[in-house]
Give the backbone structure.
Amino acid sequence: MKHSKRLALFEKVKTEYAGFLASVLWKLTGDKELFAEAMQYSLLGIWQHVEKLNGRKAGSYIYRIALTANSKAWRDRIGRDGQISEAHVGVDGAAQEKIVNAELTANVRRAISQLSPKQARAIVMRYLEQQGYEDIARNLGCSEAGARSNVSKALANLRAKLGNLTV
Amino acid sequence: MNRKIEEILKEIGGEDVPAEVHKIAEETSGKFSKTLMQSRKIVLWENILRSPITKVAAAAVIIIAVLVGIYQFGGSIDGTSAVFADVLEEIYNARTVTYKETFYPGTEREFTTEDMIIESGIVRSVMADGGVTIFDFNGGRELELQPASRKAILTHRVGRKRGKRLFNYLTWVKSLHEKSGQYIGGEEINGEMTDVFLVDEEFTKKTIWVDPETNLPVRVRVLHLANPDNAVLMPKMRLEFRDFGGDTDESMTISISTGSGGIQEEMTTVMHDFVWDADIDETLFNLEPPEGYKVEEKQLDVTNRGENGLIGALSFWAEMSDGAFPLVINDLGDPNKVRPLLNDKFDRDGDPREEFNNACDGMHEILKGLMFAQERKVDGSWGYAGDRVQLGDADKPICWWKPEGSETWRVIYGDLSLGDSSERPQP
């Protein structure tokens, strides 16, 4: 595909999904620096696969791109210092409860980044995007029962990674 | 209070995106788009790495010399992270190319090859007579197909030096500032405007016409300049199968070039009719000889034997010349003098194929030895007095040179021993 055509398609897709990307990536990262990095990876992913994003399945691809980008950004972050420091949880204020809650939330986000693509998508669509099982099933290419199963498995995985969260 | 994961997930889901984060998204997105649209000719083409290799091809030739390719470099770009560097690589990463290459070899007739290169770096070249050569430089293999005679020659290069990085014509890499291409303006080619760049080296001048939209070459002209020092010779020689009792017009030509010393005769090559990122059938690059072809497999020793190679060449000459050495070292590259010696040594009225192959190996070793001497000439330290020496004259120097960084001279003596001298030999 000629570069100019690619560019035009890229800009079209970017404009169409800008709001969605910002929303999903912010919910997955909760941190400005991490968000910026995930956004860059997402844009790169959109550019790389732009030919596939011109049809009905574009939304499904964008989800995949966003989740992959989120995983990469988290991997970069965790790789650098091995754990999430308080400074990275994007919290204003010094209230102890807020800090602890924020840390738990950050742990949940991190754990989502480590789920399999299908389970990550299931969790994001169900809880972060508050979508119905019918929509989740259509996006995952499975039945409604399958969608419910993916969500349950994802939750079970998150619990296994995080244990019982307490305040 | 136990906070369950589901509660946390629902809280996350209910979050609004802060205005500041929207702003980050817009800025990131804007920078990304700007990168894609930036005038690549300035950012990227200020630095073009020149490949240090030159290709010379003719019908039924085994090419020893290295190939000229164009490496294009994405310049580094101010970005907030390494992701932008990845962007450039992805954007400008061509997967395949096909082109034609026309050679204008000085006084000889011009000819054109049709070439294809795939992502793995394997090159397929089709000659005017239909002969096909497939080069796998990293694997050290070369398959030559002669459709007219249904013959396939598979050559394994042994002794080749492994580079730190895989050698790949299509590799797009970041700019190297010490080897720069200079943007010299625009020019119309076939009705389309192109950006023109010049890469100017001591013995080669490359002009590259680039499609500004794709940032890929549409035409490349390489002018190989003759070395003004006529004493510097690019080793090249041909042997004929018939000279060893063979019954076909097969020949073997070997030429050796590193591009560092120039050539005796000016030559121009033009790469044109580029098609980038075409879908290419990868089976065309298969190094397995096709069915129905008679296969000959051989090894080609491309080891740079350095001074030992030169000793070997001088030894052969003295063996076949009653103890005399070449009058001048360039005699090792004179086919009128070397071919008769090779015939005398290898043509024994035995198996023509075996004798021809042995003679070709012998020719190759002589040319490699000569190449070593040529490189010392380019260094400026070479000296030769073989016309005054006979085999066995242990105290008389045949030739000498000063290795880079060395305080002493390396000397080959009349008994073909190798020694060091603190002073430049005075024969």
